Amino acid sequence: MHDIRAIRETPDAFDQDLARRGLAPLSAHLIALDDARKGATSAAQANQERRNALSKEIGGAKKARDEARAAELMAEVARLKEDSSRLDVEQTEAGKTLNDELAKIPNRPKAEVPPGADEHGNVEYRRHDSTRPRLEEGREHYELGEAAGLMDFEAAARMSGSRFVVLKGQVARLERALGQFMLDLHTGEHGYLEVAPPILVRDEAMFGTAQLPKFREDQFAAGDGFWLVPTAEVPLTNLVRDSILREEELPLRFTALTPCFRAEAGAAGRDTRGMLRQHQFNKVELVSITTPDQSAEEHERMLACAEAVLKKLDLSFRTMTLCTGDMGFASQKTYDIEVWVPGQKTYREISSCSVCGDFQARRMNARFRAKGGRDVNFVHTLNGSGVAVGRALIAVMENYQNPDGSIAIPSALQPYMGGLTRIEGPNH
pTM for the whole thing? Predict the structure, then answer.
């Protein structure tokens, strides 16, 4: 959510930032809506002030036994009361109209975010190569999984439709191992607090992290006013909604492993085979709550924590700075980590790490009190995948595949697999 006062102070800068996202100027429209809101508020206040003044005059007239004057004044109060209801409605509607318009506008990109219309404008930030010789081509994960009888898309489709999978046996255990490994890494080495949050949330929580109202069609409604979370970012970030934290508490760092649910409404025909783009998947999420002066450094720290997962799994990846046209709605700046998948002979996204500034905090009314003072300001929020478990499973299966169809287990995961060093192929 944007601050209308900041827009009024620097309308040209606001419009220039929107232009970098490919949007037309909006400051004049928003200021006009704010003027209407202020006008409605002033009219309602003037009505109340006049009624208060008339009440005193009525008392004076009655004290002076001027019944005619008192009756005249009381008639005016009655008319003002009728107008008051209308003015209150106009004030409420004007405020709602302004807030609804502000809620539709994406966050302003940081100055250093590269320009671009889509993913082709993204810029490589850094690259990491595995210590093992990189497999340049191979079978895709679903070919390996189906051949071993451990990945069943047909059974999932019979139960739930497309974009679901049934994992079995050692592949199911490998996915579980990946999630546990990531949680242990982030809590044990990176200082995140593990949280087991609800995965059903209400409208206010989805609004707070900006999934609603703009991306309603991408979400799964669960009935009775609930939504299935598209990411643990939603409940983790909303832990601080309607709060005033102490500066000494910050930064707060949370992590969670949850199922995630996405309608993938705009992904028709894309990645229809396999597990790359599913309606249900598991993900380890990272969320940080910081002061404004901590957020840039925290963004780099969060990115390094997500990258550490892939380094310990000894996978090749590249980290991209997303351009203005490819960033998420709530983001000021986003890094994407893309892991090498030899089955597709390309890099695919496995994590996004974003800094949102106070954009989400304003929607959630999440604030902090400055150390040793009375000033209360909005916190900054950050979120990142640490990482997507299903996509990590894909990367491990494809990069650790052997010619016989078996899959070697990365050393970091072997303790979570009961010491197992390989998943046997279909011929064993």
Answer: 0.92
